[in-house]
Amino acid sequence: MVNGLSAARTAMPPFIITLATMLVARGAALRFNEGRPIPVPTSEEAFLALGNARVVGVVPVPVLVMAAAFVVTAVLLHRTRFGQHLYAIGGNREAARYTGIPLARNETAVYVACSLLAGLAGMIHASQLYSAEPGSGQGFELNAIAAVVVGGTSFTGGIGTMPGTLLGAIIIGILDKGLNQAGVHFSLQYIVKGLVILAAVYFDVRRRAGRR
Question: What is the reported pTM?
Answer without folding.
Answer: 0.83
